[in-house]
Amino acid sequence: PQSLASIEQTENWNIEPICGYEGCYPLVDTLVGNNLRVRFDTFNHQYSRVKNPFSMVLTFSMPQSYECTFSPLSTQIKKNEESKIFASNFVSYGSEKIDSTISNQKIIQLSGKGKPIQGKKYQAVSIQFPTVTPAPQETFQLFLEGLVCNGENLRPPVVTFSEGMCEW
């Protein structure tokens, strides 16, 4: 089992599973909308060794003409069995490290002119949350806040992760 992403149906956003690794297994969930793709790597499958703190990687891809900013420390998760919301407290972006105890207002520049991979432009942001990694059977929600592209404040829907089996 692994955590699969879903959202409430909206006009501008949807979830698309894409080939994520060699041989296209497992598929990786990607939030798609407003000319932007955000891939989610939760690393909480049954074989994961990382348990605490919970880390996930968000990989952004966009057209070359796009310029975005992202406030990763505004990103939050909520585990359904707890009422507490966990704000991200540490971010890694390339060689840059952001610790919430030092700065809570850091903005990351994202651009369609990022590093090419298989003909696409992308930037990966690793985010940590001060909580234990949820098991694949646990439901949790991701609140992706602080994302502005070409001057527009994007409001992606809440992404809910729940247990599922990856399809080939």
Topology overview:
Blueprint (H helix, E strand, L loop, with lengths): L1 E5 L6 E7 L7 E7 L2 E6 L12 E8 L5 E4 L5 E4 L5 E3 L2 E4 L2 E4 L8 E4 L3 E3 L2 E10 L10 E4 L3 E3 L2 E3 L4 E6 L4
Antiparallel strand pairs: 1-17, 2-3, 3-4, 4-5, 5-13, 6-11, 6-15, 7-8, 7-14, 9-10, 9-13, 12-13, 14-17, 15-16
How much strand content do the residues show? over 45%
Structural class: mainly beta
H and E string = EEEEEEEEEEEEEEEEE
Helix segment count? Answer: 0
Q: Give the CA-CA distance, first to last residue.
A: 13 Å
Structural write-up:
This protein is mainly β and 168 residues long. It has strands spanning 2-6, 13-19, 27-33, 36-41, 54-61, 67-70, 76-79, 85-87, 90-93, 96-99, 108-111, 115-117, 120-129, 140-143, 147-149, 152-154, 159-164. Strands 2, 3, 4, 5, 9, 10, 12 and 13 form an eight-stranded antiparallel sheet that branches. The protein is globular and about 40 Å long. The two termini are 13 Å apart.
Key terms:
eight-stranded antiparallel β-sheet, 17 strands, globular
